[in-house]
Amino acid sequence: MASKILSPASTLSRPVRASLQCLRRQPIYPPTPVQHQPQRRSISAYGYEQAKALTFTDYGDPPSVLSLHSHSISPAHGNLMTLRFLASPINPADINQIQGVYPSKPRFTTSLSTASPIAVAGNEGVAEIIALGDKVKSEGFKRGDWVVMNGPGFGTWRTHASATTADVVKLEDSAREGITPIQAGTISINPCTAYRMLKDFVDLKEGDWFIQNGANSGVGRAAIQLGKQWGLKSINVIRARDDKAKEEQLKQDLLSIGADVVITDTELQSQGIRDQAKEWTSGGRSPILLALNCVNGKAATAMAKLLSSDAHFVTYGAMSKQPLTIPASMLIFKDVHFHGFWVSKWAEKHPEAKKSTVEDVLGLIKKGKFRDTPVEEIAWEWETKGEDLIGKVKDTLEGYREGKGVFVFGKT
Ligand SMILES: NC(=O)c1ccc[n+]([C@@H]2O[C@H](COP(=O)([O-])OP(=O)(O)OC[C@H]3O[C@@H](n4cnc5c(N)ncnc54)[C@H](OP(=O)(O)O)[C@@H]3O)[C@@H](O)[C@H]2O)c1
């Protein structure tokens, strides 16, 4: 393995019955300060780039099948560009993909100098272009541009990659200004998913209500904040915690970003919840028209029971690994419409809308109207050991986490 030679630094970072313990919203916090961290990138001799990637050869339990693989990338030419990753999150879908239970499969390849095909884990992230071929230049790309992945399966848990323009979407300089790598690296999946689900299934007007579970997830937090921006009201369901102080803290956190009501899944399934929901929605005169479900199981069925006639119920995840059970009466007498949503498929059909959705959210971030989802930064330096990185991936398999794991690349 050739040693790394560092180049000069580049600039890159309501009333509520006491029994239910529900809470009302508070004002939104002031803008999150945006910080740029100077980072250094490394280029090795003769234009070859040394790279490391978290890869797997077979599907399975992530800690068992992942390993850190080193390889080199030849100089960028023609339609190729060399990317240096800045930030890549660990999303539930990434874990499902490694387990082999995600519909979108990664690219297994021998192009990373291995005898047998391997795949690089990770689907989302932001990278900087550090070298590019003439054809890439002619398509309006330049060194220093930031790009996000065009779709799933590229492999983002890596320090560097070789890519074509078809693999990426460029973040325009004006859109990217004042945005941190973590913000850019986590914007293309979760906020987009929340945005489209609030917009594309029912025409919600100011003052209309929606209800969601998984409300403290990246998608859930995005839905709360976007809904607030658009004058919508939200009932947000979180999982109950054994530690009631932490549960209360989490409720307050979601109220502070714009949630109108926050309840636990236990409270959702308690007696009297329908009367309670009527109180929140002006005696039931403001219907609950949309439900967003990423959990399933009994708590999801309880959520559907609060919907008005003709409402829409969108399932986009399966965190509890339980089936979704729908009472026939909900279909026959209430005509609730059940849908599924997958942002990858949507983006494939609507590439331009995907770009404008991302830009809309970037705009809100800049105006201080969209707070980052809490993250646990996982520093990935050139010297970071594979076992440490894989240990962090293993941690994300446990629930009740306080932040999404994000690889933040330093001196790579
Ligand atoms: N269909 C799509 O296009 C699309 C796009 C993006 C995301 N998703 C899906 O949306 C969901 C959230 O993704 P994310 O990246 O926003 O998540 P995230 O920020 O990583 O948060 C994970 C969420 O899942 C909850 N959770 C974990 N284990 C659970 C369990 N056993 N039962 C119930 N809830 C559980 C967590 O609640 P606790 O804090 O209580 O653990 C937390 O709210 C995932 O299912 C993901 O696959 C789908």
List keywords for this structure.
412 residues; Quinone Oxidoreductase, Chain A, domain 1; Rossmann fold; seven-stranded mixed β-sheet; six-stranded parallel β-sheet; binds NADP nicotinamide-adenine-dinucleotide phosphate
Describe the model.
29% of the residues lie in helices and 22% in strands. It is of the alpha/beta class and 412 residues long. It has 15 helices and 18 strands. The protein starts with 9 loop residues before the first strand and ends with a strand. Strands 5, 7, 8, 9, 10, 17 and 18 form a 7-stranded mixed sheet that branches. Strands 13-12-11-14-15-16 form a 6-stranded parallel sheet, sandwiched between helices. A 3-stranded antiparallel sheet has the order 4-3-6. It has 2 domains: 33-188 and 369-409, Quinone Oxidoreductase, Chain A, domain 1 (Alpha-Beta Complex); 190-342, NAD(P)-binding Rossmann-like Domain (Rossmann fold). Bound molecules: NADP nicotinamide-adenine-dinucleotide phosphate. The site of NADP nicotinamide-adenine-dinucleotide phosphate (NAP) has 24 residues, from helix 2, helix 6 and helix 7. NADP nicotinamide-adenine-dinucleotide phosphate binds next to helix 2, helix 6 and helix 7. Its main location: mitochondrion.
Q: What is the gyration radius calculated from CA atoms?
A: 22 Å
- Shape field: globular
Q: Which CATH class of the largest domain?
A: Alpha Beta
The CATH architecture category of the largest domain equals: Alpha-Beta Complex
| Structural classification | alpha/beta
Give every kind of bound small molecule, once each.
Answer: NADP nicotinamide-adenine-dinucleotide phosphate
Low-confidence stretches: 1-42
The CATH topology of the largest domain corresponds to Quinone Oxidoreductase, Chain A, domain 1
| Overall domain count | 2
The number of helical runs is 15
**CATH homolog superfamily of the largest domain:** Medium-chain alcohol dehydrogenases, catalytic domain
* Distance linking N and C termini: 14 Å
Major pleated sheet:
7 strands, mixed
Mean pLDDT over all positions: 90
